[in-house]
Amino acid sequence: MNYIYLIFALNLISYSLSASVFFFNNDLEKNKRESIVNSSFFLVGGATYHYLNRVWWSEDNNQFSFSSNNDFVYAKNLDKVGHFYGGYFTSELFNNAFLWADSEKPLKLALRNSIIIQSIIELKDAYSPNYGFSSYDLISGIAGSYFHYIKKKSNKLNYIDIKFSYFKRSNKYWELEKERGKSASSYEFFNDYVNQTYWLTFRLNKILDFEFLKNFNLAIGTGLDDSQFLNSSSIDGGLREYYITLDYNLKHIFRKSNNKFVKNIIYYIDYFKLPSPTIRFAPSYKLHVFYF
Questions:
Q1: What are phi and psi of 246, to 5 degrees?
Q2: CB-count exposure of residue 289 (10 Å: 0-12, 13-18, 19+)
Q3: Domain segments of the chain: what residues?
Q4: Shortest CA distance to 224 belongs to which of 243, 244, 249?
Q5: What is the pLDDT of residues 108-120, one digit of tens each?
Q6: pLDDT tens-place string over residues 145-173
Q7: What's the rounded Cα separation, in Å, for the pair 159 and 69?
Q8: pLDDT averaged over the chain?
Q9: Quick check: 267 and 104 in contact, CB under 8 A?
Q10: What angle do CA 68, 73, 78 make, to 5 degrees?
Q11: C-alpha angle with apex 199: 254 to 255, nearest 5 degrees?
């Protein structure tokens, strides 16, 4: 199951955790801050579980099962990239919350919470008739969580960021679901890999000393084309696509802002790749005036 469900969870987490960062008085006692963060964790976890239980786990299955044999080739492993991003992003959200709460060892607490969330979701998948337990999914998510931990500990990795973008360019996912006799909501984008792109960005202001380029990042992206097809009711095929572009370094562009609310909003927006002129260099060449 794709960890892009965290885009949904972001709405809840941002409201709960960011409320503590943006709106609560920073002079609150440490124990009150920790109570806010811990309450947010359970509220967000419960709300997310309820949503997923209704959308993905609506059919009961009492037996533990593993994912299908094509798990490691499904969507050309783009779903594993999504799990990695999910683990990374979850750790970042919790780390910021624990920093605000002035908790001891916030990075380790964030890592722990991220792994707990991913493990619970994957174990719940094991009892779902449509998914099953996937060790590859779990490993990918945990790897993303650990990458966040290592990145924060290492100054050499501070110029690297992971981003996500989504734009509905193709209806292939819904067409294949219809062929399988299933009905997918028009808002069900979490399994729509054809329209998802994941990016690895490098901050040019950490590499070059040219002032204009400091406003941009170098971004390398990967996605999936719409050549997928049904193979015995399972979705198969497709080709991985690769992109290169310049991304906006929002943190550097807004570095002079003294508005804490604006800076925090920019901080989280910067986890999503904004549209820009882009070159697809594999499996074939194509220039996009604006790629979302």
A1: -100, 135
A2: exposed
A3: 1-158, 159-292
A4: 243
A5: 999 998 998 888 8
A6: 999 999 999 888 888 999 999 999 999 98
A7: 37
A8: 81
A9: no
A10: 115
A11: 10
